[in-house]
Amino acid sequence: MAYAILLDTRFCTGCNTCFYKCVQENRLHEVAANGNTRTLVYINDTGMYHHRCMHCLEPTCVANCPKQALTKTEYGPVLWDAELCVKCQTCVEQCPFHIPMYDEVQKKIIKCSMCAHRNFAGDKKAQPACVEVCPTGALSFGERDAMISEAKKIAAEAKLNIYGLEENGGTSLLILTKEDPTKVGYPQVEKSGSGGGSNPLAIGGAIVGAAAVIGGAYVGLKKYGERKNEIEKNNKA
Amino acid sequence: MNTNGRMSRRTFLKLTGLTSAYFIVDPPLRNLSVAYAFGDHPQEKAAYSITKKIPQVCARACECDCAYNIVVGVDQATGLERALTIEGRPEDPVSRGKYCIKALGFVDGMYNPDRLLVTLKRTNPKRGLNEDPGWVTVKTEDALKEIIEKLKKYRPEQMLFASPGDPYSNRLCRSLGVTRSDQRTECFGTHYYLNCLMITNPPNKYYSSTYTVTHSLWGFDYSKTKYMLWFGFDSFSKTAKAGILNHIAEGKRNGTKIVAFNPVKTPLADGIIDEFYPIKPGTDLALALAMIKIILDGKLYKADFLQKYSDSAALIDGESKKHLTDKDGKWLAWCSTHKRPEPIDSCDKPALDGGPFTFELDGKGITAKTVLDLMKENVKECTPEWAEKICEVPAKDIERITKEFAQAAPTVCIPNLKRDPAGPNYANSWRLMHSLNTLQTLTGCLDHEGGVLFLSGVKIPWLEDTDPLVKPYPEQPKKAIDYRTEYPVTNEIYRNKDFSAPGHYGMVGHGLYHSDQVKVVVFKGPHRGMHALIQPQMTEAALEKMDLVLDWNMYPDDLAYWCDYLLPAPHQYEEGKLDIRQYYPKWPCLVGGEPVQKAPGDVIGWGGIAKKIGFALAPEYWTTDGSNNPDKIIKGDMNNTALKAVGAAKDSEDFMKNKNAIWIDKRAYPNYQTLKEIGYGRPNGRVRMYIDEFVEEKHEGLPKWAPRWSASEGEYKFSLVVTRAGWHMHADPNFIDNPVINMLSRKNHVDSAWVNPAAAKELGLQEGDEVVLTTNPKLMPELPRPVKTKIHLTERVARKDCVMIFHGIGHRSKWLKNGVWGYRDGDLIPQKNPEVGKPHDPTGMGWVEDVYVSIKKA
Amino acid sequence: MNLSSRLERLNSDMIVFSWLSKILDYPGEELIESLLSDGLLENLDSPEAGELEKYMRSFTSPDELLLELQKDYTRLCFVSKPRLVPLFESVYKEGKLYQDSTFDIARLYDEAGLRLDEEFKLPPDHITIELEFMSYLIYQEIEAISSGNKENEELAVRLQKETIMNHLGDFGLQFADKLYEHAHTPFFKSVAGILREFLESEMEHYSN
User: Fold this and answer.
1) Which string of DSSP letters, residue by residue, matches B615-660?
2) d(CA A30, nearest CA chain C) in Å
3) Do B136 and C71 touch (CB under 8 A)?
4) Residue A236 domain flag
5) Which of A24, A30, A105, A235 to mutate to test the interface with C (most CBs of C within 10 A)?
6) CA distance A47 to chain B (A)
7) Domains in chain B, please, with CATH?
């Protein structure tokens, strides 16, 4: 089952509670102080721009990572593996949404994991930390298909744009905007994705074969486990 | 220091030359002690970390007071604990499981490396920003003894306590007979005083401003209301008030219509607001008066409500211009059946209009009109077209919106809190507050579900209730340093009804600066108060000449450079709490908070300080029997008393341990019941729209148009709009000394002044340019201090005639480096002396946006 | 290293750690008295010690010296924002009070059977406590050697190594550098020099 986050920017007030919750959840205080964030809301003139990983179905970062340090899981998140990463920053350069950030001090790629450690695959009530805290419910979380239906329903009713349905081949973050999303700050991105490309583990929606799906699932779960351990370690005190 | 060339291992001490005293025979321990003989410690390791959840209530971050749990990591082996984050409490009717970025910032604030951990004492007697105080560290207990000895030398009128009206401050100040004046709560004074004058004369059975942080006695039914008018309510500060936002979002999803008037287009206007009008700053009053006229002319008011629950039918004497009353003080109305004046409650058919009525009363000929008739006369000229010329909201929209609003009544409301235009922002803001309350009265939405919700059914008692006085308090000083004694309308409330009422922050700096009366100033956490608000330069100059200044604070801040002692305060999460749910008071409710951890360092609570000073200087008010027996010091059992009164728990411990720290009575909302209980003329309480006290001060009893105090003039053409970021709270170091939040502020230009791009173009300014903002010197003749800052060009400032700056973002002291990037909004806003203030405003507030500034390239 | 020179070295280290611990706590009358009277400084094998002694002797009254030291210490460690010389390890490592490093060092105290006194109200990773801890561990090493308790000796050595390599080495050197950089008084500049020199020699010992 693939998950996605739906952001209805009409209800986003730019309070950035999502940003600070993410910092505390993932113990990112020092990298955030350096200006490197997993999620941050910019109060732009035409609307709220959320700078955060789109979790593409066909992630460019995954396709271009020379060490397979980035993987697309079958349950949605694109995850980064600190141990495999050689800090080449190809992902920083290649991401069409300009998302991954490199923290020079901690030598880390900073990028949203969709709170994979929260085990939403195993716990039906679990949701990413940002979604949990959003005071107005501008962020919601669920199965991607259901989120798409919801997004389409709201968009039709309130005459909104949906960003992420097709951008870069579709993403696991779907954004509803009143204005043209590119005017709000979301980058103009090709509709077609980067494809599974050089990374055989990347999952490109329906076009990938069963073997790749299994492989991807395995890697995803492994990464999930590692992330969970890391978070537990970080939170141990 | 020689850091090169590592030494080979050697004996560091030439032992041969030493006395035997240095051959240590006992374990060399000073601050550690032996719990287990070395090597005997149990070797099985306890789990490294477990988490626990501690209920807490937000306070001081905003008025919502969201209840939530603090998630704490615990090391079982050492017993050390650390708070990690927050988890929502869905059962809390205010927060409903949500909280905001400021609450998260508070968690990290506990571990701020720059906390004040010890008491500091000045050794250099010269005060000032550029003086090194020569601090030394002293034990808090010793410092307090020294302070008490010093305080004994001064008369009450020579001391000022700059402290909010919490129970301990009140008792302390009243027992010493000193003036209490603080800026923290004062900026909400307009709401407080108008509510006191219109709705409830304090004290009443539920409301005490001590516990209702914005001095408001109500909340708004955002999730159920059908129509809301926002007069500047959608400020940036509102964008993170989770306890309000979660309700507004629900209402919005259910179809609430929201119309906003604001020169600034905040993110709320992007998606949540239906209609947005960039109103001219300081002219909301014209709009409100036009709305009143439309409602009166079209008879769109709720006549039943006005008859039963207001003074609309009350008769105002043509000569005295005050309410006419019978011998028992009951208002008189004109009875349409008997054609005579009768007490309003027992009158068969009180006339709402149709006057003037002429009759004889106690042998005297009287001509009187009803309040509603007088109101009609007052707004006669206030047509929508007239209002459009002043406020620049189209007349046809004013007309349509007003009718829609009246049609949706009584499930409508006009939320107004704190720093909205109906607050202390303009010289005419008290009139605006009066008008908004009038509009809410005309539409019957006060004390009605879906409208304005009145707090009821629960009260946290005063210290005077739990520990009654043995003898009356001494008189307060005849002349108060904040000039409140020159404002009878508000002074009467402060002196005789509610000592916790706001003082006059717009003048206290002026009072200190222009007289030698006060020699001692005691501050309670001024980073959010005296020093964070208007014209701090005047307060600073005044403090240089004081004999004794002390501050109880969690951080050393700018004010430290004028202080003799700095006493360390605990973090808000290190204290227990009991809170009413004032910001969604649909149900009587109490929530509790437990200390998350023991405060590190030599910290002392405010109650502890107050008891020590109070007992030493005025023991008769601090013991249960009026003696000076230390065993009889009052306990202040307020929380236990409140819990027992509603049957919520046996005591605080029982409440926290066994009752999930929440008590709620989900009864149906009793429409208009509370108004009856607390209003004017109780037990048949009513709203009093016509205010006799204003008449006594030569103002109108009903709202009337008046322009702002200042006008645009030459290069001083930018009206100052002050807001604050959702993640800041005054100059609270929990936020401005937080490097994560500082980064967020920089990315969102909160370190800049915001200007409309078209206005900037005319000035030849570009994004990021350094500029200087200068207040019109006619408005600020003394101690001006222009502000230097970057500018951010943005359409969010929806008008060319404004500049928006953020409140509470900077420190100035060169020793306080973290916050230095920010400017001080208050530097641009002058203190108001009574000569300036009285002709415009009988409440004596601060008018913090009533100035025009110039913008020039630095 | 023979037993007698090893014990001599341990004794020396124990005294120096204990002395540094005292001197890096808030200066009180007791400290001044002991500094001026016990002759320890003359015997401290560091070029900084001579400077330090000279400075102290330049004061005509101990009260005057004490006030100077108290002012300098308060300014450095308790007032500024950000603090010029934070006293706590976690501030250097994680930027805040009570972080992972605080918990780690407290665990080591616990392993040694020690508890922080209730009267000490500051976080347990205070420089003075970590130095005191080292002094105690060396004391226990001497005791274990004297009584032939191999297990305790190993425990004492292991805990010393962990304290130096994971905590005091890094933190103490950073502390010393900041103290040297920001101190106004020659006293604390000299103390910073002694601390750095001493910790470097300790680190060298444990990294071998």
Assistant:
1) HHH-GGGTBTTSS--GGGB----HHHHHHHHTTS-SSHHHHHHHST
2) 8
3) yes
4) no
5) A30
6) 6
7) 50-109 (2.20.25.90), 119-191+458-569+603-631 (3.40.50.740), 218-454 (3.40.228.10), 718-857 (2.40.40.20)
Contact B88 A132 (CB under 8 A): yes
Contact A29 C95 (CB under 8 A): yes
- Does residue B142 belong to the interface with chain C, where contact is any CB pair within 8 Å? no
Contact B412, B445 (CB under 8 A): yes
Closest CA to B149 of B444, B550, B504, B528: B550
A173-177/B32-34 β-pairing: unpaired
**A235 domain-assigned:** no
**Chain A residues lying within 8 Å of B264, measured CB to CB:** none
Is A160 inside any structural domain? Answer: yes
Please give the DSSP secondary-structure letter assigned to residue C188: H
* ipTM of the complex in this document: 0.95
B741 with A133: Cβ contact below 8 A: no
CA-nearest of B354, B378, B349 to B368 is B354
Which range is least confidently modeled, B42-51, B65-74, B300-309, B494-503? B42-51
Give CA separation, C178 vs A189, C183, C203, in Å. Answer: 49, 8, 19
Residue B44 has pLDDT above 90, yes or no: no
B119-121 and B136-138 as β-strands: parallel, antiparallel, unpaired? antiparallel
pLDDT confidence bin for B371, thresholds 50/70/90:
very high
Number of domains in chain A: 1
The radius of gyration of chain B's CA atoms, rounded to the nearest angstrom, is 29
The SS3 call for residue B82 is: strand
Q: Over the stretch B20-30, which tens digit does the pLDDT of each residue have?
A: 444 556 788 99
Q: Mind telling me how many Å the CA of A77 is from chain C's nearest CA?
A: 28
Q: Is B434:B427 a contact under the CB 8 Å cutoff?
A: no
Structural domains in chain C plus CATH codes: 3-25+86-207 (1.10.3480.10)
Residue with tokens 């404002």: B487
Question: Looking at beta carbons, which residues of chain C come within 8 Å of B603?
Answer: 121
Q: Which CATH number goes with the domain that contains A112?
A: 3.30.70.20
Peptide bond into B203 cis (omega under 30): yes
| B627 min Cα distance to partner chain C (Å) | 32
Say if A145 falls within a structural domain: yes
CA dihedral of B261, B262, B265, B266, whole degrees rounded to 10: -100
Question: What is the domain extent for residue A11?
Answer: 3-230
Per-residue pLDDT of chain A (237 residues), as tens digits, is: 899 999 999 999 999 999 999 999 999 999 999 999 999 999 999 999 999 999 999 999 999 999 999 999 999 999 999 999 999 999 999 999 999 999 999 999 999 999 999 887 778 889 999 999 999 999 999 999 999 999 999 999 999 999 999 999 999 999 999 999 999 999 999 987 665 433 333 333 332 333 333 333 333 333 434 444 554 554 443
Does the pLDDT at position B528 exceed 90? no
Contact C15 B13 (CB under 8 A): yes
Q: Which of C13, C110, C160, C171 to mutate to test the interface with B (most CBs of B within 10 A)?
A: C110
State the DSSP code for B829: S
Inspect the interface and report whether the beta carbons of C98 and B819 lie closer than 8 Å. no
- Which SS3 state, helix, strand or coil, does residue B280 take? coil
Q: What is the chain C residue with the closest CA to A27?
A: C94
Tokens in use for B576? 């227990």
Interface contacts A/B by beta carbons within 8 Å: 125
Q: Are B634 and B620 in contact (CB under 8 A)?
A: no
| B738, β-bridge pairs | none
* C197–B132 CB contact, under 8 Å: no
As a whole number of angstroms, the distance between CA C85 and CA B387 comes to 61
Find which of C15, C81, C155, C197 to mutate to test the B interface (most B CBs within 10 Å of its CB). C81
